Structure formats: structure tokens, C-alpha cells
Amino acid sequence: MSAGSCTETTRSTCPYCGVGCGVLVNKQQDGSVEVKGDPDHPANFGRLCSKGMALGETLDMEGRLLFPKVHGQRKSWDEALDLVANTFARTIAEHGPDSVAFYGSGQMLTEDYYVANKLMKGFMGTANIDSNSRLCMASSVAGHKIAFGSDTVPGTYEDLEQADLVVLVGSNAAWCHPVLFQRILAAKASRPSLKLVVIDPRQSASTQHADMHLQVRPDGDSALFAGLLDYLSKNNFLDQGYISAHTQDFGLALTAAKSWGAEAIEAVCGLETEELEGFYKLFARTEKVVTLYSQGVNQSSSGTAKVGAILNCHLATGRIGRVGMGPFSLTGQPNAMGGREVGALANMLAAHMSIEDESHRQTVSDFWETDRLAFETGLKAVEMFDAVASGEIKAIWIMATSPVDSMPNGDLVETALKNCEFVVTSDILGDTDTLRHAHVALPSLGWGEKSGTVTNSERRISRQRAFLSEPEEARADWWQLAQVGQRMGFEDAFSFDNPVQIFREHAALSGYQNNGERDFDISAYDDVSEGAYEALTPFQWPRTREPARNKERFFSDGGFFHKNGRARFVQIEPQTLGEATHNYAFTLNTGRIRDQWHTMTRTGKSARLSAHLGEPFAEIHPEDALALGIRHANLVEVSNGLGKILVRALITSRQSKGEVFVPMHWSDQFASNARVDRLVPPKTDGTSGQPAFKNVGVKLRPYVGALYGFVVSRKKPELIDLDYWVVSRCEGGWSAEFAHTHRPANITERLQDLFKDSAPNQSGARPELVSMVNDGSGLATHAGFQEETLLGAAFMADRPVGVSRGWARGLLGFRFHNSMSRHGVLAGLPSNGSVEPGALICSCMNVGVNQIALAIEQGASSLDQVAAATNAGTGCGSCRGDILRIIEDLQVVAAQ
Known about the structure:
Structural class: alpha/beta
Helix content: 25-40%
Shape: globular
Number of strands: 36
Strand content: 15-25%
Oligomer: single chain
Radius of gyration: 27 Å
């Protein structure tokens, strides 16, 4: 067997979004890992997005936390765990159970989540356990519970393919849930009558494929769907039989919807009458409708109302729980749903039970055999960190997330943790913006090392399996939690030796005293053997021992989980535009981009993923940019009363005037000042507690620097004292952008040191430095070589440097055989005759914009023809919207 050949295949689940794609992992004998889509997994049938395809490139030990630390010093597990257990116990004894808290993550496995919830709510006696799922899914949970009596997703992914109309609300699914979006596009290609409507303030990769794009104003969704309910009533499209038999409060909801009035709806939505009527007619006259919604709906101070407005329209037409129809919440994280199942939010108990329900509290207390169960809702995420800031919470354990980066008002969160008496973090990395404030840092297992289950957006439970050994002293999250529980005196309750024991208990609780009154029930697995658990194939819940209670869809014939079995309509009261437009000239919207994930701790390791959009940016409409004196690729300061960030201007008509979009991914590990959530005020939905990340008031101004530069280097550049810097991976090393208000006296020497400090190679050759200054352009270039290898190159000027980034990022992989080729580096552009790929469009196939443009110039005029010429769009397909836009733009130019 050759050195790089495959040794075995492991079936697992992707650790990114809530689509929950199955993967086949092949560990090679040389240590590398190949990841492919699992053709047998019912979530993706072999498809993967660009992030999933690059998973093998993100598995390394660089930056890993590999042993426990206390106050920055290495300690044994016994020392660290004793300190955590004793400190939490002492704090509870002195200040009460609500003086401690736990903050978790949708990156945790269900088994980890279960033990955390049991420890905090069941035995520490506090419901101060919340999750970063509060930031993405809480309004959906609240809306489901109000309407259905339970947090139930009624449908399945198959419904998206069976529908005749898919309405995508507040989601750029082409980038954020690309595999699911490709399933929709594949269905649309085979059945062109399927229509796609996208409701979003921005033009995006998703809108490129839409039959109709409603460019609604931020937070205009409630008005839009209230108007739809009124339209359905006035035009006799209601299902009166369903309403009468299975629901209540319809009259109240309809009265509230009518009270909006047409003019108010148009004003709040920012849409013309013709646009609204076109959508309303399409929805009304199409029976098989699926409404997909995500963060643009949830991340709002009115998120629960938005969810309710969508659910109202489906309940009023009886379009729920049947093939090809229903409301569908797209989950953000790989196990946000699993966390909800085990009660990892402050207002929930395990197995979809409610902490506010006395009978549910008794059920859980009896099952766990505890008299310490928390009896009231704990602090939700924003409240929790406010309580840390005020000193009310004196000890907090943070697991698998970095709230300094992801929470609103991030600077307050950081100050709160800095001043907190006791902070514990469990993470795989040794340097994050949150971990730097930890008194105790515990090394966790990462994807590929840990074993357990996750649940995707369609209620499908899948296994994540370990295919890598546990590195050094890193340990599973559930083990850390169980050890602390035992050391606090709860040995019997936390005597878990492996994940299957936890899964059995989780399954048993779901069926305990549950005769169909609760939706979540997987009690068929309450005695699963270790072998059966290891071989577990993906399944949807509920999964009980009574086949008649196992169903793929909910609510087609009622059966809601309120005590009277009826769904409840929600009154959506009229509202005004958000406060952001009152105090600031611009409305900020934050979100994800295609090839990065959360704070880039995983995706930031991949050169391929970093090549797509390598810098944090602000999308600005051309007219706004012109008025402010901001040109394309200038730097721009985005600010409000909470703080300011510095990002690259991306001027595009895809953005609405008066609005700006900035991605959420860049932390202090990758950029000087790009943590956008520091600008988000701690304004939350009054019901769900979910923060409003999509409607933030800001102002913009251009940044004027005296020094600009770009670097490629085998060593990671250290530029921390400059106003602006961004580092990202490239093949063989790093690239960096930088700028400063003046030219530091030693900047040339510092950059040259990146190359000079390299050790001589085996032949004893030392680095050779070459430099060039172009008096005409002001560009100064310095490069270092070791024989035929480029160690790095730095390009500097008094304005943004005109360097071909795509070409320069590939230089570290070239061989330079003579002085002419070496001096060619100094020009900052490829030599004559070379085809420079340009900005990366297709990460899967490494195809740039210039290559696509050349194919179009040579006659390719469709997606399929561009794909045939370049291979672009033949991988995950999430770049196909971008390719369409390039085709359209170039065709317009050619026609002029």
C-alpha cells in the first residue's frame, strides 16, 4: 500500500451548519485526511459545500490547547477539575445557585449538552445555562412554542423538493445552507414550474436564482406576512375547515392583521403595491408552499412576531405537515437542534419540557432523582453577560464558543469576563478572544476526535464519529462536565464512562411519562447497545417503540401540543421602523459569507477557503460611497456609540441605499479591528431574548492612511501595532493586508525580518534579499529568496497597492530558477502571457473571476458552458449565483 493510500473509511457528520450533511472520512497512511460527501446520507446524498469539502485541510495541531492551564500555567487534570468543582461549590454556598452560569454552543454534541444541562439545572440548582443558539434560533423556538405548544419543526427536506413554491425569508441559503439550496435548485431544474421567492434586504447569491426578489426593509417581515394573512382572508383562500377543527384565536390574529392598513404595510416593507400583490397572489394560488426562514427573521427585536406571522399564514391555509408544504426553520449550527432537545436554553428543560411547567419539573426531578432542580427560568445570553458585568454572576463556564466575538456589545462582554471572579473555558484552541480571560482553560476534543450525536434542521439525528486519536491531554466535553459533577458530590448522577450511556439516559428521559403529550421522543433507543450506537444510522424523531406514533411530518391533521390540542394564532400588531434609522445615517446588517464559519478557528486554517474573501468588508451602495468620498477598496470606519471597526469597502449595487452589510467572522486573531458585534447593541426580542443583529444604526467615514501594504510570507506576519491589518492563509504560508496613518520608521526592516530570520537550508545557503522602488507609482517591493524558494514578498505604497493578490498568494509555491524570475516578483503582477486567475469565485475548483471572464469572452454564455470551460460551479455549486452575475454583467457591457 502506498504512503498516501487510504486505510479505512469513517461515516460522520459535517460540523458546520444545520443541514447536517453526512461525510465519508478517509484517513491516509501519511496522516492526511480526505473528506467526501456520503451518498447514503438523506440530508445531502453525497453533496458537500466548499467548507465541508475542505474539512481535511483544517485538521492540524497548530494552536491547539493540549493540557489544562490555571492562570496560564500548566496543571494536571486533577488540579484543574478540583479547582473548578470547589470554586463553583463555594460560590453557590456563599451566594446561592444563581451566582454561577454556563454558556455553551451548537458546536457541542448532544451528549455534552445533556450532561451540562443536567449538572447546572438538576444539581447546581440554577437555570443559568444558555447557548449561542440563543443568538440564532431562540425566536424560532419561541414562535413554535406559542403556536404549536412545542418546539416542533413540522416538515422534512423532501418537502422543499416537492413544493411548487419555496419562499426563502431572511436567508442567503446559497451561501449559508448551500447543500440544501442546491437541492432546491436541482428540483427547480427538473421541474421548472417550481418557483423561488427570496425576501431579503440584500441582493445575494440566493436572489440570483429567484423568480421574485422582494427587497424588504430591515424588520419589514412582520408587516409583509400580516398583509398576506389579510389578503388570504379577503380573497377566500382560507382553509376554514382546518381553522375550525385544529386552531384557536384566528379572529384576533386577523383583526390585528387588518389593522395595519395597506399604506403602513408598504411603508414598513419598503415595497410597491405591485410587488406585494404579485407575491400574495403567487402564495395564495399555490397550494404546495414551503416557507424557509432563518437569521434575517430570528435575529430581530421582533423575531418571535415574525415567526408567528409566517406560521399564521400556513395555519390559516392548512398548508402544514403535508407533502411539499409548511413553515421550515433553517438551523444555524450543526447541533442547535440537539441542544434544544436536551434543554440547553435557560427557559427549557430536557426532552422539550418547560421549566415553567410544574408537572414537567416534577417529571425531570423524578427521573434524575434530584431535589435541587431549578424552578424558574434562568438568565438568557444577553442577561447572563450583563449579570457577569454587574457581579451578580461570579463564576461562569464557557464551552466551545467565544462570546467576546459573537455576543452583542462585545466590548462589554470582554470587560465583564476580564473582571469576573472565576472564568472557565473549554476549547480546542489555546488563544481565542475569550480564552485570554480564563482563569482555568480546559483542552477539549475537536471534530474527528470526539464521538456522539447531532440533530439537523429536519429533526434527523446523526452520528459524529472519532477517526483521530485524542491529542495529548485533550478530553471530551461530557467527560469534563461529569468529572466536575462527581467532584461536587454527585457521583451517582454523573458516573458516565462513554457517550452511549449518556445517549441511553437522554432517550429514556424523552419517553419517561410521555404518552404522546410531548413531541420529542426517542425512547426506542433507551437500551441501545454500544455496538448498535456505534453503527447508528441517521433517523428522524420521534422514534418510539409504538410505530403508530412515529411520523415524518407533524400537524397535517392537527395534534398540536397545547393542552387542548389546538394551534394558536398570533396577533401581529402594527409597528414602526426600527430605531436604527432615527439616530444614524446607515443601517448595519451582519451575517455570514460563503467560505468562512463563525470566528474562523476551523475555516481560517484552509488556504483555499481564505482565498475567496480574505478581508473583512462593508458592502456599500455606490451612491452612498460617492457621497462619503469612499472609493472601491478604500478602508472605511464603521462606528456608533458602542465602538468602531475598520474594514475594506466593497461598493456594490447589491446593497440597498442607506444600508451596509459587514460579515461576522473576523476576530482579533485574524484582524486588527473587525469584530463587528462590538457595534451591536444588546437589544433583544422581548419574548425569545434573541439579539437584533440585522438592524443596527451606524455611521461611515473613509479612512485615510499614509502607508498601505500587502505581504506574502512563509512566516505569519506580526503587525499588531498598525491601524489596520488582516492575516489569512495562503498555500505555503500567510498573506496580510495592512495600513497605517503614518509610516513607521522601522516598517521596512520589520517586513524584511520575515525573510531574513529563516534558517539556512541543508546546503548552507542563506536568504537573499532583493528590493525595488518604483518612483512613478510609489510602490516599494522587498522579497527574500533561499535559492529557488521565495520566503516572502512585501509590497508597500502611500496608497492601496496595485498588486495582483491572487497571483501573489500563489508565489510561495513557485520555483525561481534565475534572477530574472526573482525580479519579476517585484513588479507585483504576473509576467506577460500569464493568465492571472483574479479574485477566487469557485473555491472547490480554484477558479478565479478572470478565468471565468475569459471563458465568457470566448463564447460561454450560460452556467453549463462556463462550467464546461473552467470547471467552475461543478463542486458544491454555491458559486453558481456569482457566476450568473458575472455572465449578466459582461453581457451588458458587450451590448453597449
